[in-house]
Specification:
alpha+beta, 5 strands
């Protein structure tokens, strides 16, 4: 079985480092294209920066052959302060009974059920609070002493699920659908 690196340091020590390096490079390029962060000169010294590590994963087929190397940029929200850089932490997740009921109704009516996997889902939501971050080790930056302000949400921030849920609700309603929502009222 292939061991997934627990850190970028472990990934660098792997014989597959050239593949991991390309995945990291592609991920950083995607974040730059999406404008995930803005470079700010003169970091806000009252704000603690969140570290930003990569989380690695390897997809394998049934014969345990490596089929895809993946890296996700993750914001460690441990330094986030309630009321300062996040307000609420809920996420719109259906419970098991609701999901089973929906599938039962679909099966009884002969309806097709489609699953949607939204790549970089959390990156579709704009940050609602000011939050700064540091680029992970090994990611070259044109201005290394400057802070990066998050424009888009990342996995690992405390408000990630809530912001994605709000964005998804807005997009579904723009398509003309009606949403029923029973959780906290989004601000």
């Amino acid at each position: 079985m292939t061991k997934t690196p627990a850190s970028e340091k472990e990934a660098r020590a792997c014989p597959d480092w050239t593949l991991w390096k390309q995945v990291v490079k592609d991920k950083v390029a995607a974040h730059k294209k999406l404008d995930t962060w803005s470079t700010i000169k003169g970091s806000n010294m009252q704000q603690k920066d969140a570290k930003r590590p990569f989380v690695f994963d390897i997809n394998q087929d049934a014969e345990r052959r490596k089929t895809r190397f993946k890296a996700r940029l993750l914001a460690e929200g441990l330094n986030q302060v309630p009321g300062h850089n996040f307000d609420a932490t809920w996420a719109p997740v259906p419970n098991t009974a609701t999901s089973r009921a929906l599938f039962a109704v679909a099966a009884a009516n002969g309806w097709e059920v489609h699953h949607v996997d939204v790549k970089t889902a959390f990156l579709n939501a704009r940050m609602d609070k000011e939050m700064y971050t540091k680029l992970p080790e090994g990611v070259e930056s044109e201005q290394p002493a400057s802070a990066r302000r998050l424009n888009l949400d990342l996995y690992g921030t405390k408000q990630a699920g809530r912001l994605w849920g709000i964005k998804l609700k807005e997009e579904i309603e723009l398509m003309g659908a009606t949403t029923v929502y029973g959780g906290p009222v989004p601000l």
